[in-house]
Design a protein that fits this description.
With 411 residues, the protein is of the alpha+beta class. Helix content is 18%, strand content 24%.
């Protein structure tokens, strides 16, 4: 008996998996070229945002100095003292020196963020000031929207009106999809504007006001295989890329725009609050379980610690103590399991000043600080609870990337 071998097949249908891998490899090469430092002047606010996102991902603070206000960032400063709840907290991290114009969420998400998932959602130009809403995804899977405020340098050539007068409100669903061969005037974001607006002309020349030289030697895009960010926070999403090109030559950067502030946009928090639920629906007593089952509400890697705090406060305002407790840290291995955890949380809510958590009609988030890459302290002011009440939430990131509430203390 002779075995007949199948002749090699040809055509587009042969080995679709290999073709998919080839396409993926091609997109990675394109993205790697996207990260090449700019050699010409940067005159568009969108290009400035893109360049800063690429540099903040590593982060490369010396190369970012031309994009920040003079004296606002000290690359050599690796720790800063912040006050949360009236107590001093020392925050150490790659962006600790940027606390003057970056909020805690920005300092948490930007190091190691997934550059290919960046989106510019909208832009608003008012004279020499441009405000952009940028959606970012952290290496741990956290998804947040940030407000970037950029200002044109006063000594930059040309005025905003002379450059074509950007739209007063232009909305775009843009992605990082340009190639290295694009002209300097083209934006790295492929925008689909919904308003009749003309894009900013790249009329600035190499004589723009701020110029620096950098020598990038490390990979432009890359985190560890486990998705660990430079700040030390873990996660399940990684964006690994290598680059073997020679980058020993310095690249000059010149820009006509500076970044004044980067802060998390909380305007849509009420509509995007996580669903309260102890990691899903509670097991019925007939099922013999001692706690929640996976699938439903509760912690998720997508939710930021700010959303987790707001979700618990909203559940308590509704009187849903069970749902609110789902955002707390608890362990199945503890004697008593979920029932003991729930009883302890109910007992806490009966003690002043924590009774204000049930009586408050609202809350406002105050100062925050990163005690470490996986722990955040968040001050909360309860509103409408009679006497003024301030609490400090301590949140920690679990091994699965979820932020949970570890402790609550009164100020």
């Amino acid at each position: 008996m002779q075995l007949q071998t199948r002749p090699p097949a040809t055509g587009p249908s042969w080995r679709p998996a290999r073709r998919a891998l080839q396409v993926l490899a091609g997109s990675l090469r394109l993205h790697r070229k996207l990260q090449q430092p700019r050699t010409g002047p940067i005159s568009s606010p969108e290009e400035v945002t893109y360049e800063c996102l690429a540099l903040l991902r590593r982060p490369d603070l010396p190369s970012l100095l031309p994009f920040f206000s003079p004296g606002s960032c000290d690359p050599s400063r690796r720790s800063v003292e912040l006050r949360v709840g009236g107590q001093a907290v020392e925050e150490a991290g790659p962006l600790a020196g940027c606390s003057g114009f970056m909020d805690t969420a920005a300092r948490r998400v930007l190091p190691g963020h997934l550059l290919r998932r960046c989106r510019v959602l909208s832009a608003l130009a008012l004279g020499d000031v441009v405000q952009q809403r940028v959606a970012l995804t952290a290496c741990t899977g956290e998804e947040s929207v940030f407000t970037w405020r950029l200002r044109r340098r006063p000594d930059a050539p040309g005025a905003l009106g002379d450059a074509g007068s950007q739209a007063a409100a232009s909305s775009s669903s843009s992605s990082l999809s340009s190639s290295r061969g694009a002209s300097p005037a083209s934006s790295p974001f492929t925008s689909q504007s919904t308003s009749a607006a003309s894009s900013t002309s790249a009329s600035a020349t190499a004589s723009t006001t701020s110029t620096t030289t950098r020598t990038p030697t490390d990979a432009q895009v890359g985190t560890s295989a486990s998705g660990t960010s430079p700040s030390g926070s873990g996660g399940s999403i990684s964006e690994v890329d290598s680059d073997s090109e020679d980058r020993s030559e310095p690249y000059p950067i010149s820009t006509a725009w500076i970044v004044e502030s980067i802060a998390r946009d909380d305007s849509m928090d009420e509509q995007e609050l996580p669903q309260a639920g102890p990691l899903g629906d509670l097991l019925s007593s007939a099922g013999g379980g001692d706690g929640p089952m996976v699938g439903g509400g509760g912690p998720h890697p997508r939710w930021s610690p700010e959303l987790v705090v707001k979700a618990q406060l909203a559940a308590l305002r509704r009187g849903d103590v069970v749902g609110a407790s789902s955002f707390n840290l608890w362990s199945r291995s503890t004697s008593g399991g979920w029932d003991l955890h729930l009883r302890s949380f109910r007992a806490l809510l009966q003690q002043p000043p924590y009774t204000a958590l049930l009586a408050a009609r609202g809350a406002a988030l105050g100062p925050a600080a990163l005690a470490s890459g996986r722990r955040q302290l968040q001050e909360v002011e309860l509103l409408g609870a009679g006497e003024p009440c301030r609490l400090v939430y301590q949140l920690g990131m679990q091994a699965n990337g979820c932020w949970v509430i570890e402790a609550i203390r009164a100020v």
